[in-house]
Amino acid sequence: MKETNLKGVVEQLKADIDQVSMQTKGLKNGERFKSVRKLSDLRNILTKIEEINRSVDNLIELQHQKRNNQA
After folding, report:
1. Across 8-47, where does the E strand assignment appear?
2. What are the pLDDT digits (tens) for 41-65?
3. Distance (Å, rounded) from C-alpha 52 to C-alpha 45?
4. 46 near 14, Cβ under 8 Å?
5. Could you tell me the pTM of the whole model?
6. DSSP 3-state assignment of 28?
7. How many CA atoms lie within 13 A of 65 on its CB side?
């Protein structure tokens, strides 16, 4: 259940970032570049969070399998 919640939150944040990114079109080039760059950095952080979450889920699954094999 936690995985689904985190996944949903990350997906919503990415969608929000995309929407805010579209709103930067009216800014001057320098301001827009800074904004888009920050938003891109945030998106990359969210991607890393997804990767970490998958890795943790995989480790938990392996731990469960090992426990089941030992029992």
Report:
1. none
2. 999 999 999 999 999 999 999 999 9
3. 10
4. yes
5. 0.75
6. coil
7. 6
